[in-house]
Amino acid sequence: MATSSIPRCRAAYGADLGRQRLVLVRAERGGGLTTLWNGPAEAAQLKAAGLEIATAGAAGRALLAAALPATEAFARWIETPLVAADKALKVLPALLDVQLPFPLETCLYDFSKLRPGAAQNFRALACAARRTDIEARLAQFGALGLEPALLTHEGLALWRQAQAEIPLAPATLRVVAYLGDGRTTLAVGSGAQGGELISLHGIRLGADELAPSDAPAVRQWTGRISQLLRALPAGTAGEAVQWLWCGPGVELAGPLEAALEQGDRVRFKTLSEPALFLARALALAALAGESDGQLRNGDLTHPALLAHVATGHRRAALNLLCAGGALLALGLGWQIWLQQTNDRLQTDILARAQELSGKANIQYGTEIATVQAALKQRGAELQPFLDALAPATARDLAAILEAARTCRVSLEALSQSGKSLILRGATDDWNHCDPLAAQLRARGYTVELSREEAGADELVRFTLKGTRR
Amino acid sequence: MNAPTTARIRLGLALAVAAAGVLLTLYSLAALSEDLSKLERKTTALATLRRLAADQRGTQRALAPFEALATKQPPSLTDLAAKTLPGIAPGIRQRESQGAANGWQTRRVEVKFDAAPAALGSFLAAAAAARPPWRLVECDLVAGVPGPDTVRVTLLLEALEKK
Fold it and tell me: What span, in angstroms and rounded, lies between the C-alpha atoms of A71 and A185?
């Protein structure tokens, strides 16, 4: 099925199990790598390592990752004409079924590296293996007291780790060759395609068969290799070829290189600590949460992974509950605050309106109008007090009369009402009425002065109109 | 109850709470503008009432000097005239009265007399200085009546009083 969810542990173990040998490596977060076992696969001698792995696994601190040999698993790129991931995922099993040499119902499978292809399509790397082979492999580990949580296609782990340890140069075809005691696994990819894996292959010939330099076995082996390389996409034909050797049978690399077709374009290299490479690759992939090609799935899924998924669901539900609860609390809090603030403001408004208007019953929404009406009436009653405190008109008038006398102006009539004052008079000089006007201005009046030319009596008649500002 | 059922119930509950939270948030956001306007209206109304109360307190303060007076009756205009207009008997006519705040009332009086302009000034100054004061509301003055050095004066005076 689809890619599994892997718990992020502090450590992970990788197990490379051959016919007679077992390699166990522990990888820890922070970069520590420890070889727990590299020797005969005998349960009696593995008790300590098995106990450590079981204890760490039970405590959720570590996972054991193992590989399904390429000879027992199937890997193929599958392309669909669909570009939508969800739709493509639905048709991928049917497309895989067509390519499998046995019924899909008897297999467990995984799709990884799902991505849109170059030709408006959708491609994924399908890995599959027969259920019986998976169960048999688990039983092999079980017999040693080991219970791998992850069982991946070994070719994927080899390719990934080789990429991590030696970056692939552009325009280079890489062949990662694992020499086991009973099998050879090849992971082939190209730098021209962004370091993407092209194909995975398994050959049922390993160090046991090839060791005595058995000429027919080596010929069979090289023939199979040549056949596989010829089947690669045409675009890779001109690329330099880089062989990377690893696996417990790596001491055979020299004789095999000699048997392989060589040329200027072909380079051979051995990966560091080649015997530990697959176990290391499996451990580091598990530590990184990599689950591509994980074939222990469906009803064979390890309880630790099921618990991890259940925990993930529980956590997701809890997060959702918390987020919903927070939104609910925020929303309710806002509504309550709004209501309380509204109520408090309305209470204040009513209390002030009642206090200012002196009325107990005031209709909602009419508070200001009621208060304004009440204050208008009250203002009329208080206006005489304000008027009485205003600058006294009587004092102004007394001062004007005194000023008129001083300026030798004879008043003919004076009329004052409210803020306006009209004064008519006569003087023997054109300018004598000016001090009178100045006196009025000084007392806050706006003054309009009009004078007539002197008549027969030689008196200048004038009219002063003043309005208090 | 098996594990998948429990998980489903747990997820269903979480979804229900989340949905309720989202719905309430959406409702609150939709009503936010109206709610804030309502709050602003109320805050503005309260501020208006506070301003009116402050104005009212200012107006109310005008009462204090009058309430503090020992005598709440204005001095008699006849007495004022006797002091400032010697030898003149003004014609005094009571006019309208009107109620004011706190039991006070305004009383208006019309005063008519003939006098020298300087004497009129003295009378008016004394009226304004009285406590409670006489306030000049209207004044009409015609010169040369009845003689060249006198003026005919008609005054409308107003005073506050409390009985």
Answer: 8
